[in-house]
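Worked example 3 (structure in, sequence out).
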């Protein structure tokens, strides 16, 4: 049974793993250790939703607990998905909230994964109390972005897909952590690619702060100092937990 200090349940759906945990919303941290299940090789709506159901069953999440799901695509409640970069293309045309709610047998709240992470950093982490424009980014299989202006999220930005130059028409295919792994790039070499990415973002948005999240943020000392831009750039405080914590937090605000 989900323990009592937990007030909401968060799930983070990624290209490689589906992670979930009960979340203590006062502290902004996991109330119990998370459970990670590998994303199925063919990541159809049915296959992914079945794993989310399995997560809820595992933690015996009570019916009264808000459930938030961080999902790697732009999410507009009540509308069908029209873009999917890193999960199976059969998600396109699907009402994501409906699929998860049906599989879980209860209403759930779905939010873009980078927006969830950004909200968590704004509420509990590296962007807490920050005025002006924060761009929170997640470096994983793809690149996710969240724009937060004076504490307010501008949802569903897809700035991981900006055109870098005539050779690189999709930034995440050049600079994501997934690409770093595939191409076995060293951290300094990767930081050069990240300089190109964050440099362009800086030029177009003039943010006050960049926050860098995703699993690789654990290694931030190996690449952040080599990203050569003017804007302050800091690692996410919640590291890879931000998606789960942010999804749980977001769901709690919707209940
Ligand atoms: C997706 C975004 C997502 C990001 C991180 C991108 O490929 O288009 O919606 O936030 O990956 O998962």
């Amino acid at each position: 049974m989900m323990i009592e200090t937990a007030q909401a349940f968060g799930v983070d759906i990624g290209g490689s793993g589906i992670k979930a945990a009960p979340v203590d919303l006062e502290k902004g941290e996991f109330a119990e250790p998370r459970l990670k299940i590998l994303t199925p090789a063919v990541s159809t709506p049915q296959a992914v939703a079945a794993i989310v159901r399995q997560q809820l069953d595992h933690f015996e999440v009570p019916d009264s607990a808000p459930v938030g799901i961080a999902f790697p695509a732009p999410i507009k409640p009540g509308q069908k998905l029209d873009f999917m970069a890193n999960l199976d293309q059969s998600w396109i045309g699907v009402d994501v909230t409906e699929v998860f709610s049906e599989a879980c047998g209860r209403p759930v709240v779905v939010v873009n994964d980078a927006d969830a992470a950004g909200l968590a950093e704004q509420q509990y982490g590296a962007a807490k109390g920050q005025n002006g424009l924060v761009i929170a980014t997640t470096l994983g299989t793809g690149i996710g972005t969240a724009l937060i202006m004076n504490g307010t999220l501008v949802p569903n930005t897809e700035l991981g897909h900006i055109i870098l130059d005539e050779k690189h028409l999709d930034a995440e295919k050049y600079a994501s952590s997934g690409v770093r792994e595939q191409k076995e790039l060293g951290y300094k070499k990767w930081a050069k690619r990240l300089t190109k990415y964050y440099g362009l973002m800086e030029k177009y948005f003039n943010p006050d702060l960049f926050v860098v999240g995703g699993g690789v943020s654990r290694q931030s000392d190996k690449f952040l100092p080599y990203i050569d831009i003017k804007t302050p750039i800091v690692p996410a405080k919640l590291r890879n937990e931000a998606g789960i914590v942010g999804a749980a937090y977001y769901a709690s605000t919707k209940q």
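Notes: The pocket of beta-D-glucopyranose is lined by residues 72-74, 85-86, 112-114, 138, 140, 142, 144, 158, 160, 172 (CB under 6 Å). The longest helix spans residues 187-205.
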